[in-house]
């Protein structure tokens, strides 16, 4: 780990660095010009690059990295520098770091073993408080295509997908695709993450996660249902690239989930027809149709919400909306897209190309849409050829009786264009217009004949071909044109044109009886020098003439057939033999020759002049496949409309979700301990409800605080709080209840309480005592069979180390790749500058320091609200009533449990016997310590028992059965988030220190506005402790109130700060590693504090 | 999405490559070179080229081909639009986007590309944000960097990406607060032989240069918003306000940006500010042709026409031209057959003209068509459509900004057929 020493040197030798920087830049100015001429010099260069990388000057390293990136950019191999480069991955200099990332992503695949060296850096950065650092770490980590780290990537993605920062979640969505392409086996797991991220409400995430969805599981359309409306509503605010992806996906979705909006007209017709028919099937059909088509409101929502995007500056977005309208909107509404598409034609050549292609396809089916914009498709001489031909194509499609004359005038200009390829295309266009619009056929034909005298051969040839096609459609009296064309044979050389003329003459040989034999004579002379295409047509012409006019042409034809017999091309030899057998009668020839005339001079169907875009319409518009007219890899077919719409209610979202970034996952089953994060989030919706109940219900009572304060101690050990509990538990409880009932106390009391509390902090307790308690507590854990032995051992170990946070086992899992052997339990939160620290030893030192100096201990609750919750109502409990409340005392049954007091009442007139707890239904990880069975409860009698529940720091419900001798009742306990805490005492200094470590994503804050009288310290204290079991921290400033607590299960710190601002506002800040609980608590505290 | 990017210069050298996923061998560009050869002209290279395993999507700008390699179905416009955005970003960063500039700034280019795409999907494309992540090089900064050894990478991480207003960076401060808006209209027209208009339309843009402190919220209203037929907005414009009130309401990005582009409705007759009188004739027998053009003002609303430039692609048969302009300078390139005449201002009293003869290839037949004349011009202080900005208001900040609006009319694709 030599990087350590660099780090120190950097700081000291700033002056030197500058000098060296200048030197290095002077070398770099030379290097780009010289193109690394010889191989040997190349090697040498790499050698000095290595030296520069090994140097302890940032500037030298930076220059080296710049040169290396330059090499990568040029496509030169820089892989041999890998070991030297990867060392710098933890550099403090951001630019070096960035360039190293660039290098890593490029070469990690080739140097997998060495690449692993860098992983731990990213893992650490994943926990950085700064969201941008977390995001970039995830980005690079997931871009390193090394299969070994797939599990690490998976974990990182899962964590990041629950991150509080939407930017990090966006990057998680990107990482999904990367991981999927690296290891498709992870598909199932990734789909779960996608499912969760799809529920995300952030516009930042939406585009990226839909992209991941399209890549990983485009067929899981069921994942979209619940998010459909949200996506539609978010769409306008999503960044433009995301919009494109979402719109394409929603188009596919709409085609599977809604019925066609296009049927309206057919439906009416059918109705009338079916009126007279009686058979059942028809009737059914009628019924179906009779229901006038009503568009699904969701269908309408999509169409309505995409409309503003036609105004986007991004051509891809406009095109995406256009194709959406084309594919799913009612035909009457599609018109609005044409204006926007025409606007795109002002854009670059490439954009024009794609847009014109799509317009071409659309204009075949619906001419009307683009007719008003006809002039926008007029060709300019400066357009590239491909644009010109596309415009022509569209003009042809748009041509009709009304505009054809204008168009033909325009075409005349085009035909004269210097771009001959374009001129030829125009001629074809004219031909197509002529066939489509019968009124102008003659005009076109005449125009084309004029072109036959054009000087350019390509133009003439193309005209001939087109005329041939036109004449074929109208075989009548065109003798003059054919004669004219026959004359052209002398001058024209293009084979296709010559072949076309010959074919025409052959086909019409009876109409031009004088010319045809003469043409054959000329052709016979030049036969050997003709193109194969022409030869075949000469043979054809000969055969046809032989059959119609054998007197004049018999010998000529035989001569030609003889020439053909010895031709080099076997096609021609083959054809010659075939024709000879067919037309020249001899004894061997069969019955076919009788029909020779019919075979050769049969009526031939006219060719159909069709648009080359005709067959493209089965591809979704705007796709690559449409552009190429072949199915591209990964193309997703647009399904046909379903006959009957699938159940629309699947899109209903039942819960009105709160303004939370993430929403609960539905599947609790699949969760394991590694996913603790999710399970927490699952229940917080509900918890917020129930806890708000408790807030309103709790009174201003705070009498017992004094007592509990005395009981509490403040030893360093986190578990020592129990001690106070163990002895006097039940007695104290009774006393407390009694007191609460008797007298409500004023504000002065709470102030007193605070003083008491301060006093209590000074009191000590011996370490020995606390450790013995610790042992006993772990015993009780194993007794209650709730926790596995290993876990409890780990717990005790941790306690011994006095680390405050229980890191989830993730870090442990991946530690085999952690080449630097630093403790997996260490938390970045405890480190001074985790992501940037190059020195691992320093990390460890930092860890030690932080542990030894922290003075945090559990204190007694400041206040215990008397609010009780109903566990079992007497009506449903057949006379047995049960209420519970949280005494806010450390639990005697286990230090991770929350103690719960249950008061049982017998409201019947008989004894209730054998009250006990039956079956337990607890979420994974949750533990419960039950009370001892109660033998009997007298009528009107009541008894209070206590039990302990380990809620795993989540607000999940603990369900169990409360049983009597005869019955079993299902009951639930759900803790308000404030009850999952234990108050801790700490000094202001410690508080600030801890808070400093819990910034970034671990911090949530909000602004509170309320009347100033609510901002007296006592009111705030009272309100805060009412909601949550926190301890007050003495504050040096009047305007800042601090509260500290730790979570019961994991012992993570929960720091609450209320900072009064000018006017009637205050800032509420919560710092905790348990961000989920933190944000739930914030949400609960806010309304309480702002309440008058 | 986008797998790799290759930058290819006009002589067919790949001078930069960047990969966002696995490395794609540069041999894939051979397919591109093939297509380029077939197309003869750079402009005619098809933007989408399929190869056995990849698809190559390219844009051609500043004599550079930007070739993106993709592997699966993706909307082609998505890639093309993105590539154009890349070019725009380079232009924004370096002033010009050319091969030498890119080569000189290869590290910055690489860092920018790295930020713009993640796994081939666009990540940060807003120039405001990119400039915070990676500072554009300036002469001053280069000097400072060489001396202090500091770098172009922003040492503060940008927050704009995460804010509600992703296009604006936070903490903007200016001593002089100013907002300038340029209303620029372009006339696209085709004029036929006889001088009548075949097609003419007006396209306009409003380019803004806003240098305001803090988070100003601006509204811009027009005297005659009805003129605007089809509009497209910068993402900062609130669409709802436009729909209901025809007012542009927005929090502007910092610096230069295009606020709006619009199309003036086709019903309005377009005033054509110039006319071209031409007399170009080739004779079949002789090897000399006559050439004469005169440019004059038509409907200019009393403004002067400036920056007039006439270009024309002469037919292949023309060997050389000997011309005398009444003002300005002209050139004729005998290789490309391109005639260009830089006219300058049009003085209505003394109309500029260009007269002379063309020498034609002996024996060659006369061209079918006379060359098309392309025209460029500028008219200051005039929006030809008559569009007028009514007022600009600022909310959200206390200071008084300096506001300026400029109008200009230019020729877009303005062609005269002869």
Structure overview:
The complex is a heterodimer of chains A (1092) and B (418). Chain A is α+β, with helices and mostly antiparallel strands and 1092 residues long. Chain A is 53% helix and 9% strand. Chain A has 47 helices and 16 strands. In chain A, strands 1, 11, 12, 13, 14, 15 and 16 form a 7-stranded antiparallel β-sheet that branches. Chain A has a 5-stranded antiparallel β-sheet with strand order 2-3-4-8-6, with no helix packed on it. In chain A, a hairpin with a 7-residue loop joins β2 (869-872) and β3 (880-885). Chain A is elongated, with a radius of gyration of 43 Å. The two termini of chain A are 59 Å apart. Residues 1-41, 265-290, 656-793 and 795-855 of chain A have low confidence and may be disordered. With 418 residues, chain B is of the alpha+beta class. In chain B, β14 (274-282) and β15 (288-297) form a beta hairpin. The longest helix of chain B has 19 residues, at 76-94. Chain B is globular and about 70 Å long. Chain B starts with a strand and ends with a strand. The model of chain B has no long low-confidence stretch (mean pLDDT 85). The chains are: A alpha+beta (1092), B alpha+beta (418). Chains A and B meet through α2, α4, α6, α9 and α11 of A and β2, β4, α2, α4 and β7 of B. Chain B: Belongs to the adaptor complexes medium subunit family. Chain B: Pfam families: Adap_comp_sub, Clat_adaptor_s.
Q: Which short descriptors sum up this protein?
A:
heterodimer; A: 1092 residues; alpha+beta; 7-stranded antiparallel beta sheet; 5-stranded antiparallel beta sheet; disordered N terminus; B: 418 residues; globular; AP-3 complex subunit beta (chain A); ARM-type_fold (chain A)
Summarize the entry for a quick read.
The complex is a heterodimer of chains A (1092) and B (418). Chain A is of the alpha+beta class and 1092 residues long.
């Amino acid at each position: 780990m030599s990087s350590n020493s660099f780090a120190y040197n950097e700081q000291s030798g700033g002056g030197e660095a500058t000098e060296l920087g200048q030197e290095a830049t002077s070398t770099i100015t030379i290097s780009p010009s010289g193109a690394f001429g010889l191989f040997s010099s190349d090697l040498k260069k790499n050698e000095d690059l290595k030296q520069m990388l090994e140097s302890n000057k940032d500037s030298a390293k930076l220059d080296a990295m710049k040169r290396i990136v330059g090499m990568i950019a040029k496509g030169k191999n820089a892989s041999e520098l890998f070991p030297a480069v990867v060392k710098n991955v933890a550099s403090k200099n951001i630019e070096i770091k960035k360039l190293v990332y660039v290098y890593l992503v490029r070469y990690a695949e080739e140097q997998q073993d060495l690449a692993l060296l860098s992983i731990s850096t990213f893992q650490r950065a994943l926990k950085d408080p700064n969201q941008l650092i977390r995001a970039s770490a995830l980005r690079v980590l997931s871009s390193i295509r090394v299969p070994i780290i797939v599990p690490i990537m998976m974990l990182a993605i899962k964590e990041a997908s629950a991150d509080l920062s939407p930017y990090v979640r966006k990057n998680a969505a990107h990482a999904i695709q990367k991981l999927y392409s690296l290891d498709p086996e992870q598909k199932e797991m990734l789909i779960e993450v996608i499912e969760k991220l799809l529920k995300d409400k952030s516009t930042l995430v939406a585009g990226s996660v839909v992209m991941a969805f399209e890549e990983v599981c485009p067929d899981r359309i069921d994942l979209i249902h619940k998010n459909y409306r949200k996506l539609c509503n978010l769409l306008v605010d999503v960044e433009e690239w995301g919009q494109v992806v979402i719109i394409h996906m929603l188009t596919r979705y709409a085609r599977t989930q809604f019925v066609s909006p296009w049927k309206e007209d057919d439906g009416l017709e059918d109705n009338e027809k079916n009126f007279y028919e009686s058979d059942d099937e028809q009737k059914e059909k009628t019924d179906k149709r009779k229901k006038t088509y009503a568009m699904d409101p969701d269908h309408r929502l999509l169409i309505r919400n995409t409309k503003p995007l036609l105004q986007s500056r991004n051509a891809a977005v406009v095109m995406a909306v256009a194709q959406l309208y084309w594919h799913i909107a009612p035909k009457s509404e599609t018109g609005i897209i044409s204006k926007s598409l025409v606007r795109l034609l002002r854009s670059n050549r490439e954009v024009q190309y794609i847009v014109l292609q799509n317009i071409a396809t659309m204009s075949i089916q619906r001419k009307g849409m683009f007719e008003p914009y006809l002039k926008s498709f007029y060709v300019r001489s400066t357009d590239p050829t491909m644009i010109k031909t596309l415009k022509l194509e569209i003009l042809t499609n748009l041509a009709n009786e009304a505009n054809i004359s204008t168009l033909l005038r325009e075409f005349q200009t085009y035909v004269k264009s210097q771009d001959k390829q374009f001129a030829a295309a125009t001629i074809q266009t004219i031909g197509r217009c002529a066939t489509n619009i019968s009124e102008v056929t003659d005009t076109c034909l005449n125009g084309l004949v004029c072109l036959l005298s054009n000087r350019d051969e390509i133009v003439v040839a193309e005209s001939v071909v087109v005329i041939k096609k036109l004449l074929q459609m109208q075989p009548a009296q065109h003798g003059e044109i054919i004669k004219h064309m026959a004359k052209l044979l002398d001058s024209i050389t293009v084979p296709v044109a010559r072949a076309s003329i010959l074919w025409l003459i052959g086909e019409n040989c009876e109409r031009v009886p004088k010319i045809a034999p003469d043409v054959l004579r000329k052709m016979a002379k030049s036969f050997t020098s003709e193109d194969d295409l022409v030869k075949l047509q000469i043979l054809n012409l000969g055969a046809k003439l032989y059959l119609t006019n054998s007197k004049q042409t018999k010998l000529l034809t035989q001569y030609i057939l003889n020439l053909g017999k010895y031709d080099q091309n076997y096609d021609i030899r083959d054809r010659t033999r075939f024709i000879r057998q067919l037309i020249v009668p001899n004894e061997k020839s069969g019955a076919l020759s009788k029909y020779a005339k019919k075979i050769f001079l049969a009526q031939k169907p006219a060719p159909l002049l069709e648009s080359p875009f005709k067959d493209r319409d089965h591809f979704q518009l705007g796709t690559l496949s449409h552009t190429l007219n072949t199915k591209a890899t990964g193309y997703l077919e647009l399904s046909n409309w379903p006959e009957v719409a699938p159940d629309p209610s699947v899109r209903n979202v039942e819960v009105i979700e709160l303004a939370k970034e993430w929403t609960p996952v539905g599947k609790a089953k699949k969760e394991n301990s590694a996913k603790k994060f999710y399970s927490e989030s699952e229940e917080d919706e509900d918890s917020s409800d129930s806890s708000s109940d408790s807030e309103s219900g709790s009174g201003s009572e705070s009498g017992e605080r004094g007592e509990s304060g005395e009981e509490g101690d403040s030893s360093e050990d986190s578990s020592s709080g129990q001690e106070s509990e163990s002895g006097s538990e039940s007695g104290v409880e009774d006393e407390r209840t009694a007191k609460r009932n008797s007298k409500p106390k004023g504000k002065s009391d709470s102030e007193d309480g605070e003083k008491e509390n301060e006093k209590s902090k000074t009191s000590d307790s011996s370490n020995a005592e606390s450790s013995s308690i610790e042992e006993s507590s772990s015993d009780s854990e194993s007794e209650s069979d709730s926790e596995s032995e290993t876990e409890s051992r780990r717990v005790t170990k941790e306690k011994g180390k006095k680390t405050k946070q229980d890191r989830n086992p993730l870090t442990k899992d991946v530690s085999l790749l952690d080449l630097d052997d630093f403790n997996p339990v260490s938390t970045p939160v405890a480190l001074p500058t985790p992501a940037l620290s190059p020195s691992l030893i320093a990390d460890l030192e930092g860890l030690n320091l932080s542990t030894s100096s922290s003075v945090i201990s559990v204190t007694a609750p400041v206040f215990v609200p008397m609010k009780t919750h109903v566990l079992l109502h007497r009506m449903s409990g057949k006379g047995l009533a049960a209420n519970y409340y949280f005494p806010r005392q450390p639990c005697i049954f286990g230090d991770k449990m929350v103690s719960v007091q249950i008061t049982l009442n017998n409201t019947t007139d008989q004894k209730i016997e054998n009250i006990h707890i039956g079956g337990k239904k607890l979420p994974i990880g949750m533990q419960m310590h039950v009370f001892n069975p109660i033998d009997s409860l007298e009528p009107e009698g009541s008894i209070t028992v206590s039990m302990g529940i380990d809620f795993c720091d989540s607000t999940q419900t603990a369900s169990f059965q409360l049983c009597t001798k005869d019955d079993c009742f299902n009951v639930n306990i759900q803790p308000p988030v404030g009850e999952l805490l234990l108050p801790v005492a700490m000094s202001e200094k410690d508080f600030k220190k801890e808070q400093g470590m819990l910034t970034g994503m671990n911090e949530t804050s909000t602004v509170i506005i309320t009347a100033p009288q609510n901002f007296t310290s006592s009111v705030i204290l009272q309100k805060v402790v009412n909601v949550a079991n926190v301890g007050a921290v003495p504050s040096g400033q009047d305007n800042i109130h601090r509260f500290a607590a730790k979570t019961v299960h994991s012992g993570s710190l929960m720091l609450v700060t209320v900072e009064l601002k000018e006017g009637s506002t205050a800032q509420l800040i919560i710092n905790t590693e348990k961000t989920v609980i933190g944000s739930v608590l914030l949400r609960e505290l806010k309304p309480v504090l702002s309440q008058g | 999405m986008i797998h790799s990017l290759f930058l290819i210069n006009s002589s067919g050298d790949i001078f930069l490559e960047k990969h966002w996923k696995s490395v794609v061998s540069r041999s894939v560009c051979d397919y591109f070179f093939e297509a380029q050869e077939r197309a003869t002209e750079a402009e005619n290279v098809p933007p989408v080229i399929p190869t056995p395993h990849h698809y190559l999507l390219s844009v051609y700008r500043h004599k550079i081909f930007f070739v993106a390699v993709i592997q699966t179905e993706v909307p082609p416009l998505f890639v093309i639009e993105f590539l154009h955005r890349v070019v725009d970003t380079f232009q924004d960063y370096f002033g010009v986007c050319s091969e030498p500039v890119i080569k000189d700034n290869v590290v910055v280019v690489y860092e920018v590309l790295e930020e713009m795409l993640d796994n081939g999907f666009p990540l940060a494309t807003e120039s405001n944000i990119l400039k915070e992540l990676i500072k554009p090089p300036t002469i001053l900064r280069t000097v400072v960097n060489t001396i202090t050894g500091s770098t172009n990478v922003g040492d503060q991480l940008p927050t704009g990406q995460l804010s509600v207003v992703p296009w604006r960076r936070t903490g903007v401060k200016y001593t002089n607060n100013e907002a300038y808006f340029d209303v620029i209209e372009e006339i696209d027209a085709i004029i036929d032989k006889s001088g009548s208009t075949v097609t003419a339309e007006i396209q306009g843009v409003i380019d803004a240069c806003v240098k305001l402190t803090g988070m100003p919220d601006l509204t811009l209203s027009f005297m005659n918003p009805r003129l605007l037929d089809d509009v497209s907005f910068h993402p900062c414009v609130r669409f709802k306000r436009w729909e209901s009130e025809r007012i542009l309401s927005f929090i502007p990005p910092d610096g230069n940006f295009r606020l709006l582009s619009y199309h003036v409705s086709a019903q309005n007759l377009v005033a054509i500010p110039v006319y071209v009188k031409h007399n170009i004739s080739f004779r079949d027998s002789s090897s000399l042709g006559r050439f004469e053009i005169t440019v004059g003002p038509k409907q200019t609303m009393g403004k002067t026409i400036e920056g007039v430039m006439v270009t024309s692609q002469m037919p292949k048969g023309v060997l050389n031209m000997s011309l005398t302009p009444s003002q300005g300078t002209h050139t004729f390139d005998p290789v490309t057959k391109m005639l260009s005449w830089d006219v300058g201002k049009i003085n209505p009293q003394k109309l500029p003209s260009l007269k002379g003869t063309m020498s034609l290839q002996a024996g060659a037949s006369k061209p079918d068509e006379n060359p098309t004349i392309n025209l460029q011009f500028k008219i200051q202080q005039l929006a030809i459509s008559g569009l007028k900005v009514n007022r600009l208001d600022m909310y959200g900040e206390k200071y008084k900004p300096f506001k300026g609006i400029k109008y200009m009319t230019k020729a877009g694709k303005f062609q005269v057929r002869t």
